[in-house]
Amino acid sequence: MAVRLLHAGHQVSVYNRSAGPAHDLVAAGAMACKTPRAAAEGAEIVIAMVRGNEASRAIWCDEQDGALRGLGAGAIAIESSTLTPGWVKELAALVHKTGASFLDAPVVGSRPQADAGQLIYLIGGDAGTFDQTRNFLAALGGAAHHVGPVGAGTMLKLAVNALFGIQVAALAELLALLKSSDCDPAAMTEALASLPITSPAAKGALALIQAKLDAPLFPIDLAEKDLAYALDQSDAAALPMTAAGHECFAKAKAKGLAALNITAIARLYQPEA
Question: Are 142 and 238 in the same domain?
Answer without folding.
Answer: no
